[in-house]
What we know:
CATH superfamily of the largest domain: Response regulator
Strand content: 15-25%
Shape: elongated
CATH architecture of the largest domain: 3-Layer(aba) Sandwich
Radius of gyration: 18 Å
Distance between the termini: 36 Å
Number of helices: 8
Mean pLDDT: 79
Oligomer: single chain
Order of helices and strands: EHEHEEEHEHEHHHH
Largest sheet: 5 strands, parallel
Structural class: alpha/beta
CATH topology of the largest domain: Rossmann fold
Amino acid sequence: MSSEEARILLVEDDEVFARVIARALKHREYVVDHAAGLQGAVQAIASSEYAYAILDLNLGGETSLSLIAPLKEKNPDIRILILTGYASIATAVEAIKLGADNYLAKPADTDEILSALLVGDAREKPQPAETGSAEPVMEPMSVRRLEWEHIQKVLKENDGNISATARQLKMHRRTLQRKLQKRPVAK
């Protein structure tokens, strides 16, 4: 794999997480450029061409979804992975519609990130899991996770309006606010 094929843009505002992931990717012979925010990412996109991009969805209150179009414009074959600590179906659908190739909830380790980034990539084959099966096992979502996903969907439909979402869900506004302040359940 040439260094151009192995060039990754990592846009992550958590410096410790970014340092750990960048170091692990470099050990796997990738060239990693890190940007901590949107402005740094825009400058990196303008100055280099990337084969891969790993974008943290929430960058200190801003969204990295605006970076997808310039990345795709510069290299239509780029593989883009969105990472987020607040995963929901609504944001996943939006990211994929904008051109992201995959979406992964944090916490995630380097192997999970690479697997999600490279799945379906003709240039690279992800390593199969050691379970002997190349097919991922899909587990059903818990009731709490389904509730979280439904709330996120309705909130997105109401353009983030909590009062309108609470009315539509037949839920008290403060109850909805408390649910939204919690991190989503993993499964």
